[in-house]
Amino acid sequence: MTFSAADCRGVTFPHEDPLVIVATIANHDVPRTLVDGGNGANILFRKAYNQIKLKPKHLMLVPYPVSGFNGASTYPDGKVLLPVTIGRAEAARNVMTEFLVIDAPSLYNVIMGRPMIHDIQEIVSTYHQMMMYVLDVGYPERIEGSQKEA
To answer: Would residue 132 count as lying in a domain?
Structure first.
């Protein structure tokens, strides 16, 4: 899997934008999904959890705190295992993903961390505003990010 100059079409330069995509989680399109290889967990923010119409009874206890980049710790509301689809139709990758549900303000609805990045065998290029991933059938595919949403 490689990126080329053609993958930069439509990207506004110069930029330092993060990669933000739309993911399908529990059969709901979830915009403002931040792809963050520096995050050791997948995070679903409580506001998005509620918008997907999931109930508190779906949450499993998380007995440990998580730390933010400022060093502050918070306990998640819980964790939940949900189906996630990246891409559409023949270009789809489907995985079951564990999310920590966090009740905190965020510009994003979801943070896709290393666990999901590894599960879908994803390669990220914030420069190209694109990621490549391996389809359910084993072939590579691309998905573009949204600089507007970033």
So the answer is: yes
Question: Does residue 69 register a pLDDT over 70?
Answer: no
Domain interval for residue 50: 34-144
Is residue 129 a contact partner of residue 144, using CB atoms and an 8 Å limit?
A: yes
Helix (H) or strand (E) holding 100: strand 93-102
Question: Which amino acid, residue 44?
Answer: L
Nearest Cα neighbor of 104 from 65, 40, 46 is 46
Domain count, the chain: 1
Tell me the CATH number at 82.
2.40.70.10
Q: Which of 42, 40, 4 is nearest to 23 (CA)?
A: 42
Residue 7 lies in a domain: no
In the block, tokens 């979801």 appear at 110
Q: What is the C-alpha separation between 79 and 135, in angstroms, rounded?
A: 26
Which DSSP string do the residues of 3-49 spell out, in sequence order?
--GGGGTT--SS--PPEEEEEEETTEEEEEEEE-TT-SS-EEEHHHH
For the stretch 35-58, pLDDT in tens is 999 999 999 999 999 999 998 899
pTM (two decimals): 0.94
